[in-house]
Amino acid sequence: MIILGIETSCDETGVALYDTDRGLLNHTLFSQISMHSEYGGVVPELASRDHIRRILPLIRQVLNKAQRELDDINAIAYTKGPGLAGALLVGASVAAALGYALNIPVLGIHHLEGHLLSPLLSTPAPQFPFIALLVSGGHTQLMQVNGVGQYRLLGETVDDAAGEAFDKTAKLLGLGYPGGAALSELAGQGRSGKFKLPRPMLNSGDLNFSFSGLKTAVLTLINKQSMDQQVRADIALAFQEAVVTVLTEKALAALSLTKSNRLVVAGGVGANYHLRKHLTQKAAQTGATVFYPQLEFCTDNGAMIALAGAMRMQANDTTPNDSTGSFTVRARWSLSQSKNDTFNN
Ligand code: ATP
Ligand code: FE
Ligand code: MG
């Protein structure tokens, strides 16, 4: 069975073809980052228009590279939400139109389900059940994942997401948007122990997070220092260490609380080298294994949506699109509460 995956929730147009027998056949991505960076953030209207320009050529490209025809596709999975409504509508309408024309099922996938299943694109793939630490630009959550569609929220951020904190702190340090990766690179030149920043909610006794205060602490620090390149790097490192410590400790607490020994890390911040190193070391000390997506599948992509669609199809967890080819998107949508809320059209 071949599934076409389409991701358009934010500023990346992602397309992929996934074969349930052979795995990922091909995938491609167009990032709009350079277009939005001059505004210091994503401009929703520009994002929607660019998805419209890119999506059909990208679908053609993926089919060509995989040496497949439209008729070879057995189902289409698209990101139904959460995300920017206008951007989501581009992927949803293309998926619905293609599904209608080809007379095949169309599945609306939760974007976070895509992220948290993305490590299953790698080998060895984690077995269910596992704990997922989802650290992206818009979310920071710990989830208990018992199987496809079985997600229990254990804790989440009460304010900013980890990626958002990286981006805002990067901005304070004069780095571009989105600045997570650039901040991490700058931190590589930092001297450990030069500055100490708070570890928000480290001892809160629950699995929730808070990152907005950290950004304020960075701002206060910047205002007190005479800044040069070395001090910027030292602050970047202190910030990264604070975030990584809290993420690691809470993830380990989630493993211990649920008596699990498998941890999956997903989302853009999962690309952070320091987080990967620290988490893998700490988890190994407790006998747990950590699974990561390949770096290119940490941030938004079509492959994770195609995979989630394939797993839903295999679990028979789908209802075919109705005969009118109608579709909806959900700009705001909670994954753990989406169980009774159909994932499908
Ligand atoms: P969501 O999935 O919650 O809707 P999103 O799709 O925007 O949000 P992702 O694409 O998963 O989020 O991740 C983007 C985020 O990851 C950005 O905040 C970016 O700064 C951050 N990021 C990417 N690489 C790194 C890195 N190496 N270190 C830290 N943060 C990073
Ligand atoms: Fe995302
Ligand atoms: Mg993104």
Automatic annotation (TrEMBL):
Q: What class of enzyme is it?
A: transferase
Q: Name one Pfam family in it.
A: TsaD
Q: Where in this chain does the record put each Gcp-like domain?
A: 24-306
Q: Where does Fe cation bind?
A: 111, 115, 300
Primary site of residence:
cytoplasm
Can the keyword Coiled coil be found in this entry's annotation? no
Q: From the Swiss-Prot or TrEMBL record, state where the protein is found.
A: Cytoplasm
Where, in this chain's numbering, is substrate bound?
Answer: 134-138, 167, 180, 272
Q: Which residues cross the membrane?
A: none
What the entry lists under CDD domains is as follows: ASKHA_NBD_TsaD_bac (cd24133)
Q: What is this protein called?
A: tRNA N6-adenosine threonylcarbamoyltransferase
Whichever gene encodes this chain, its name is tsaD
